[in-house]
Specification:
By secondary structure, the protein is of the alpha+beta class. The chain is built from four helices and 13 strands. The strands form four sheets. Strands 8, 9, 10, 12 and 13 form a five-stranded antiparallel sheet that branches. A three-stranded antiparallel sheet has the order 1-2-3, with no helix packed on it. The longest helix is centred in the first third of the chain and has 18 residues. The chain starts with 13 loop residues before the first strand and ends with a strand.
Length: about 230
């Protein structure tokens, strides 16, 4: 949850000197400030590094380039922390598109691209055993040369868990958009540990990214079970 960066005013919302002031159901309160865990994975560190580089490069853009990004952002929508649609800034759009371009091995765009849209992937055949964790698209997309496939998977979950797609994080990749089978077991086990009889379910999301524009398709969801 985001707070106003001050606790000195009427709404009394924000964090300072180890405490957080907030308001819920019309009542104001103060609690100890939460800092979260200090552990960071290698992937989290790399994501932060990319965004730091993009933040720096955004500041080096010309006024004309910034205006162009702001104009394009007016036709786009983002998602708030509550899942509702919200407007985004040119800087947000610059970060969003260029992150995926850089993730796929490209160079960040200084000028906004012409957006073309990306269709969601087809259903996939996913096989999870003690020896392998394979993924195979049923159909290859059109214009596959400009697309990459991103596969996300949760840590192993117990049979009682019915929905954990929100815990899915990128595993390996990006992958070529073909119908050839590939095995993500080594990357998955290194990141999350191997599934077991006690935790046999893996919740998955996968989507395409346009490597030229940074656009992301809709997400497909699946469950793999040992």
């Amino acid at each position: 949850m985001k707070y106003i960066p001050s606790i000195a005013f009427e709404e009394m919302s924000g964090s300072a000197k180890g405490v957080t002031a907030a308001k819920t159901r019309g009542r104001k309160y103060i609690r100890n400030r939460g800092y979260g865990g200090s552990t960071r994975t290698e992937f989290q560190a790399s994501v932060k590094s990319v965004f730091k580089q993009l933040s720096t490069s955004w500041k080096s853009l010309s006024n004309a380039q910034i205006l162009a990004w702001n104009k394009l952002a007016q036709s786009q929508a983002g998602r708030s922390v509550l899942g509702t649609s919200s407007k985004i800034s040119g800087a947000n759009l610059y970060m969003r598109l260029n992150y995926w371009i850089v993730f796929c091995g490209g160079d960040a765009l200084a000028n906004p691209p012409a957006l073309v849209g990306v269709e969601a992937p087809s259903e996939a055949v996913i096989t999870l055993t003690a020896e392998k964790f394979t993924f195979e698209l049923e159909y290859a997309p059109e214009a596959a040369a400009d697309l990459k496939l991103v596969v996300c998977a949760s840590a192993p979950q117990g049979n009682g868990i019915t929905r954990a797609y929100g815990k899915a994080a990128i595993v390996g990749g990006p992958h070529d958009c073909t119908t050839e089978e590939f095995d993500i077991k080594a990357d998955y086990d290194e990141k999350n540990g191997a599934p077991s009889a006690a935790a046999p379910k893996v919740f998955m999301k996968y989507f395409f990214v346009n490597t030229k524009t940074g656009e992301k398709s809709g997400e497909m969801m699946a469950i793999a079970k040992l």
